[in-house]
Design brief:
Layout: H1 13-32, H2 39-54, H3 61-76, H4 82-100
Length: about 100
Amino acid sequence: MEEKYPDRPSDNHSVARCIRAWNRAFRKKLDEEDEEDDTDYEARKAGKDYYLRAMPPLVGQANIRDFIACVTYAQIIDILIPRDAESLLAAAKIALSAARHET
């Protein structure tokens, strides 16, 4: 049976927050929609939007590490497609470089 919700617990608080945001948005969208063919697609899109909003800002090394963990997890469980993950990880790389050079 295919698992609908990414409920696997995480030791990383940021990843756990993102998973909770995804689940809330996904379930809410499913509850709002009638039984249509695109309901699952719309619910997953809503979940992705809320997952991304729950991610930590790219400020400070700890947040950047958590951001990377969130992106990686989202790609592993198919919330993000590789192209989107690559773009977000590139932004994290730039932010990490900038954070290391702050005075």
